[in-house]
Design a protein that fits this description.
heterodimer; A: 292 residues; mainly alpha; MetI-like fold; 2 domains; 13 helices; 75% helix; 0% strand; B: 324 residues; two-stranded antiparallel sheet; 16 helices; globular
Chain lengths: 292, 324
């Protein structure tokens, strides 16, 4: 997943047969480029039509260049969804989940991977099974429980649920990373009189930090993109997240082509920006983790 | 994946463990590492364990939700499921979801990754391959609700981009893509293929990085063309990753909810109904909580069985490879 910036090694040797297929290679390149173009088309028409007036759209169709920069669609969407509120909801929920999820994963993985507690295989299997569960099999009890404890329609219910769900995967991954932790380091620390708590934070944590950062980025993006549980748990305008707000506007009469497209555009921008910023960290983190 | 495999192999710790542990145990309690598991196990119980058990209990009841009374009905909900055509339709559509999210993207992904790595990357440079790969991956970073809203508009009968285009080309009555039972499922599948393709491409390409380049060079020197290298080197070498992709995507295809909710809500005439959406419908729309819980439990069972089959198949394959 994190391999976007890695580059394929170019082989130095170029056998003669390559040169004989002078034309074939262009055909293959064009073929691959056409596939890329097809993948891009939905994005392109989204951007084209986000800033095109409805009249312009019905007259000149979806593929024309907009005659003027029409921003009413964006304003419509922004005001109707109260977008800054949605942005803030999505951001704080995803950030807290990322932090709490990684912390939970680390504590679990410390006990399983380094502590090698009894029955650890069962624990890991249980966590792995949990990642496969359909959320539908949990949602109604969770919904009722949230109402009982006064967390209905609260972002905190979503935070608690996803911190645990994400940590199921995180535990599985980190436990296998910590399972191969150099024992010499642990022994040295133990001889120096460090207890388990100190070993966790002064020896283990600094070394696995790059992996934790990668995990945190994934948790953030995954939580940001989640749909089903926020849809059920967050029922009013002031608590909803960005994807839920966008989806719940569907079928609304106000949603003409520019409003829909501008809405889709601003809703995907945060994920895109976040991804571009951390793309480097992702690759670096994965490699750093594996070198150690 | 590389994190697990590339780390230094751990020396057999079993022999030294007891003494080391004893030394450390002088300071801390006899509980050992168990306290570190407390937050995780507590969270697991509250968010996954207890709700799952409660859901199983609900599935033996008739309950309208909220303050309404619970009535025990035994296995009645499951018996009803067996005679419910919508239930069977939803699972039949799961096959379509697997086709669109697993089979087609994996096949296309294998070819694309191999072409990019073994052909274009070498002829036109690694940059070209990297740019193409990033483009294929782009739909993967979209929130699925956003992708759904975008495609819902593209395929909209009246104002959608596709039909605007068709009308300008002289088609009088372009199809109502998402609104007719005949075309709805195909349209949903089209979007899912578009969303999914990037994932296998990226996984397979990073898998190919660890294949010894000499294998390819030797094959090329022997005069093996791209297709023969693909079959003799690429496919066998990245089989572990293929299993991972098939497993994760199949589980995701069985669980799919967001795209259906945003694109069609299971309609028209249940032509795009899937189990997860059918269960949601019973929970929150029809107020048949017990019935919805039963659907979710059957879905869980199906997922676990299917995942088990894939894992067993993988283990068998690896053993067979090991013997050879």
């Amino acid at each position: 997943m994190a391999a976007l910036t890695q580059t394929a090694p170019v082989t130095a040797t170029r056998p003669d047969e390559r040169h004989r297929r002078g034309k074939a290679r262009w055909a293959v390149l064009v073929g691959a480029a056409v596939v890329a173009l097809v993948m891009l088309v939905p994005f392109v028409i989204m951007v084209l039509n986000a800033f095109k007036s409805p009249g312009d759209y019905s007259q000149n169709g979806p593929l024309s260049w907009p005659h003027e920069l029409y921003t009413q669609g964006l304003k419509n969407f922004w005001n109707r969804t109260d977008f800054p509120v949605k942005l803030w909801n999505s951001t704080w929920i995803s950030a807290v989940v990322a932090l709490a999820g990684v912390l939970l994963s680390l504590l679990n993985a410390y006990a399983i991977g380094i502590g090698r507690i009894k029955g650890r295989l069962w624990v890991v299997t249980l966590f792995l099974l949990a990642t496969m569960l359909p959320q539908e099999a949990l949602i109604y009890p969770l919904f009722t429980m949230a109402q009982r404890v006064g967390l209905s329609n609260s972002g905190w219910s979503v935070v608690i649920i996803f911190a645990v769900i994400q940590s199921a995967f995180g535990t599985y991954l980190l436990a296998s990373v910590l399972g191969t932790f150099p024992p010499a380091l642990l022994e040295a620390a133990a001889l120096d009189g460090a207890n388990r708590w100190h070993i966790l934070w002064r020896v283990v944590f600094p070394i696995v930090r790059p992996t934790l950062v990668v995990l945190m980025i994934f948790f953030f993006i995954w939580t940001w993109n989640e749909f089903f549980i926020p849809l059920v748990m967050l029922t009013t305008n002031d608590t909803q997240t960005v994807p839920v707000a966008l989806a719940s506007l569907q079928g609304d009469r106000m949603m003409d082509a520019p409003t829909t497209n501008a809405g889709a555009l601003v809703s995907l921008l945060p994920a895109l920006v976040f991804f571009l910023i951390f793309q480097r960290t992702l690759t670096r983190g994965v490699t750093a983790g594996s070198v150690k | 994946m590389s994190i697990e495999t590339a780390t230094a192999s751990r020396p057999t710790a079993g022999a030294t463990d007891p003494t080391r542990a004893r030394r450390r145990r002088r300071r801390s309690s006899r509980l050992g590492y168990l306290p570190y598991l407390v937050p995780g196990v507590l969270g697991f119980a509250v968010v996954i364990g207890i709700p799952f058990v409660m859901n199983v209990v609900y599935s033996f009841q008739k309950w309208k939700g909220g303050e309404a009374p619970h009535h025990w009905v035994g296995l009645q909900n499951y018996v009803d499921l067996m005679h419910d055509t919508q239930f069977w339709t939803s699972f039949r559509n799961s096959f379509a979801m697997i086709l669109a999210m697993v089979v087609i993207p994996t096949l296309i992904g294998l070819v694309l990754a191999s072409v990019l790595f073994d052909y274009l990357g070498k002829t036109f440079g690694a940059r070209t391959a990297a740019v193409l790969r990033a483009t294929y991956y782009l739909p993967q970073i979209l929130p699925v609700a956003v992708a759904g809203v975008l495609w819902n508009w593209i395929l909209n009968a009246q104002t959608g981009a596709v039909n605007e285009l068709l009308r300008s080309l002289g088609v009088d009555h372009p199809p109502n893509w998402l609104g007719e039972p005949r075309t709805a499922l195909g349209s949903v599948m089209l979007m899912l293929v578009w969303v999914q393709i990037g994932y296998p491409v990226v996984v397979f390409m990073s898998a190919l990085q660890r294949v010894d380049p000499e294998l390819y060079e030797a094959a090329e020197l022997d005069g093996a063309g791209w297709w023969r290298r693909f079959r003799a080197i690429t496919l066998p070498q990245i089989r572990p990753e293929t299993f991972v992709v098939v497993l994760t995507c199949t589980v995701a295809a069985l669980k799919v909810f967001g795209p259906i909710y945003v694109l069609t809500r299971g309609g028209p005439e249940s032509s795009t109904l899937v189990p997860s959406y059918y269960s949601y419908l019973n929970f929150f729309d029809k107020s048949k909580v017990g019935y919805g819980a039963a659907i979710a439990n059957v879905l869980t069972l199906v997922i676990v069985v299917v995942a088990g089959i894939i894992l067993v198949a993988q283990a068998r394959y690896e053993r067979k490879e090991g013997v050879r």
